[in-house]
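A reminder from the course coordinator: this example appears on the midterm review sheet, so study it carefully.

Given structure:
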């Protein structure tokens, strides 16, 4: 008999006793409630601290789900305290250590890319592997539905592991080319404008900022990867509808003015650029020159917008700014509607209309996980219909 069932039996016997008063019952309920909460928390904590997975080879992988991000600075720390924190963390961060003078990372990237890759895609994932859930897997799943001959490299220390291999195994077994690799930051930033920023950070002369450093490193790594290798970068909260083979040197506007029809914000969640494109150099230069690790968006979409505003009409920059419908057809402020199932005839008509419009003019849909992670994807909703229609693994998705 489990502890929970034993407790239930004893509790019912006490309640049936003729000698138990109302006050005693209330006291018993109060004590029992406290006991049950403590017990349940102990069980949950135990399960998540000592979660074990048995591999096909019979080996045990111990997964520590009580994860503490080593790149989150101290809360409300001063500039000096944040710098001291980073100096203490630095020896533990494999991400900041170069593998060798002839980078193993470069060999991995070069070996992965071949003539069979119709399009080279990149994603970045800095959260723990067990956080790579159904939504994130759906992004990868939909990519291979749209681009079965594409190659996807996920730059991720946590997915570059046995647990990551298990997450991606259904796709690999399906013949799709996907690989998770730990990025080599020293190599990636070498001989780029951001190398000086990186050296200052490591030497304690650069304030890492008050927001998670992983957020800003994600912004930096995507720029460096495109600069050194070229290809397509995508965030992991997209549903991909079309192959990107027809896009070159392009980036998407997130919003436009209703009056002038000119873009008001550019977003770097989806970027397509050739290796060594001059605007990528400018992005990296801007990152190093204006870095502020305490402002959300400053080193991301705001950086992209600042640079493009300066250079979009200058000679020597050959790129296209795509309209919001290409990547950002769902306004993040009004996005909840796309997650809800239709309950009336008019709502059902709206869902059908949106699906036709999105399939016609959109390459990939950014679903803003930061904003929507608490929203359930309801059956029959626009998002649910899109995910179901654009997948290769579909209901066989890995549950991690």
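Designed residues:
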């Amino acid at each position: 008999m489990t502890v929970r069932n034993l407790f239930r039996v004893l509790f019912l016997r006490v309640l049936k006793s003729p000698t138990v008063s109302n006050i005693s019952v209330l006291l018993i309920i109060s004590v029992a409630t406290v006991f049950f909460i403590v017990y349940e928390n102990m069980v949950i904590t135990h399960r998540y601290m000592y979660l074990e997975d048995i591999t096909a080879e019979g080996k045990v992988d111990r997964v520590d789900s009580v994860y503490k991000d080593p790149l989150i600075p101290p809360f409300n720390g001063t500039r000096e305290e944040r710098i001291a924190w980073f100096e203490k963390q630095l020896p533990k961060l494999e991400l900041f250590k170069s593998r060798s003078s002839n980078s193993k990372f470069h060999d991995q990237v070069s070996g992965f890319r071949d003539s069979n890759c119709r399009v080279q895609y990149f994603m970045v994932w800095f959260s723990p592997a067990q956080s790579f859930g159904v939504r994130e897997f759906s992004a990868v799943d939909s990519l291979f539905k749209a681009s079965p001959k594409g190659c996807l490299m996920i730059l991720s220390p946590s997915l570059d592991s046995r647990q990551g291999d298990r997450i991606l195994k259904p796709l690999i077994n399906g013949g799709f080319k996907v690989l998770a690799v730990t990025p080599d930051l020293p190599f990636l930033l070498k001989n780029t404008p951001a190398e000086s920023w990186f050296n200052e950070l490591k030497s304690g002369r650069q304030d890492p900022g008050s927001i998670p450093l992983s957020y800003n490193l994600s912004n930096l790594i995507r720029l460096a990867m495109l600069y050194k290798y070229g290809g397509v970068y995508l965030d992991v909260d997209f549903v991909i509808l079309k192959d990107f083979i027809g896009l070159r040197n392009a980036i998407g506007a997130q919003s436009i003015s209703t009056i002038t029809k000119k873009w008001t914000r550019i977003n770097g969640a989806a970027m397509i650029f050739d290796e060594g494109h001059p605007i990528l150099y400018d992005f990296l230069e801007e990152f190093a020159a204006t870095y502020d690790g305490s402002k959300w968006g400053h080193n991301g979409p705001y950086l992209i917008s600042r640079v493009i505003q300066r250079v979009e009409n200058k000679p020597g920059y050959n790129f296209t700014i795509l309209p919001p419908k290409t990547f950002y057809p769902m306004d993040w402020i009004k996005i909840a509607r796309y997650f809800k199932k239709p309950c009336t005839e008019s709502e059902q008509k709206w869902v059908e209309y949106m699906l036709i419009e999105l399939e016609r003019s959109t390459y990939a849909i950014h679903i803003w996980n930061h904003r929507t992670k608490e929203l359930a994807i309801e059956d029959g909703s626009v998002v649910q219909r899109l995910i179901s229609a654009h997948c290769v693994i579909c209901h066989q998705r890995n549950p991690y």
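The first strand starts at residue 51 and ends at 54. The chain has a mean pLDDT of 85.
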